[in-house]
Amino acid sequence: MKKLLLILAAIAAIAALGGFAYVLMFMEEDPDTLLVGGSSDPGSLPDAQLNLPREVETQADVLDALDYETKQNQDTVGWITIPGTRVNNSVLQAHDNIAYLRTNERKEASVYGCYFADAECNIGGREVLSPNVVIYGHSDLQDNPDGPRFSQLFKFTDPEFAGNTPAIQFSTMEGFMDWQVFAVFYTDTSFDYIAADPEGGVDALAAEAKKKSLYDYGVAVGPDDHILTLSTCSVRDGDDGTHRLVVMAKLLPEGVEPPETVTIKVQTPAE
Q1: Domain assignment of residue 41, yes or no
Q2: Does any domain span residue 248?
Q3: What DSSP letter does each residue of 101-152 carry, written as one string?
Q4: Per-residue pLDDT for 48 more than 60?
């Protein structure tokens, strides 16, 4: 009997250590590898349920949701909606890009974290936004357009979806904002597309992004424009953690309605 108890105790200890090692595996992930929306778990966890008072469908709903979310978590800085996807959620921002890698909107541990803005970006009204507003979100590392979080960005790799979804909404408490998509591209971390104030200006960054884009949207981006950059991990070109799918859009002037559809040209992306 004593021998049996010793065996059972040993098994329990091994299981406990295994679980601890699993936790350590996530704690020891290289932040630089995950910085642009990576995920180390290919599972299919559901998106976060925020239990909002009502569905977020109108501009007024967005502002009400932001007010509610800010009271739940003061790190809430905006709300992002991508029509035709499950992306309809708050965006957070911390003092660094580590805080929300594995933490959701309610500050609970989560493999898929939450949508969060780069710590270097200024988020607020139009007059204070950084030239390049960067938002990260994890994918399921399967490039699955029906997966959680920013896995939904892979829907843009379908030309029909891309043409029917020419605009994204990213808004703050200071106002509702529409952004028109001008580039969808695969890249790796050697391309610096995440600078809040890009060297050479946003027009130079946008020009490089357009060359890499799967489509020619025919959207002009000037030096005084603001752009929105959405980034997540991709495994299309390798699984070493350095590959990304990126969607870029430019801020439309206040009062200008985005088009409902656009005609895009499929092109061969530059390397």
Answers
A1: no
A2: yes
A3: TSB-TTS-B-TT---EE-TTS--SSTTT--SEEEEE----SS--TTSSGGGG
A4: no
Asked if residue 213 lies in contact with residue 10, where contact means CB atoms within 8 angstroms, the answer is no
Residue 20 in any domain: the answer is: no
Identify the CA nearest to 232 among candidates 243, 215, 244, 220: 244
Residue whose token pair is 């020419």: 166
Q: What is the radius of gyration, based on Cα positions, of the chain?
A: 20
Distances (CA, A) of 171 to 155, 168, 181, 234, 259: 22, 10, 15, 26, 18
Segment 52-84, tens digit of pLDDT: 656 788 888 999 999 999 999 999 999 999 999
* 3-state SS assignment for residue 263: coil
Output the pLDDT for position 59. 87
Q: How many domains does the chain have?
A: 1
Ramachandran angles phi, psi of 102, nearest 5°: -130, 30
Q: For residue 77, give the CATH number of its domain.
A: 2.40.260.10
pTM of the full structure: 0.83
- Which two structure tokens, joined as six digits, stand for 112? 């898929």
CA distances from 129 to 51, 98, 123 (A): 29, 22, 5
Count the residues in the chain: 271
- Domain enclosing residue 105, as ranges: 48-266
Instruction: Tell me the three state secondary structure of residue 190.
Output: coil
Of 100, 61, 108, residue with least CA distance to 81: 61
CA 2 to chain centre: 55
d(CA 55, CA 81): 12
Please report whether residue 184 resides in a domain: yes
Residues 197, 201, 204, 206: is their CA dihedral positive or negative? positive
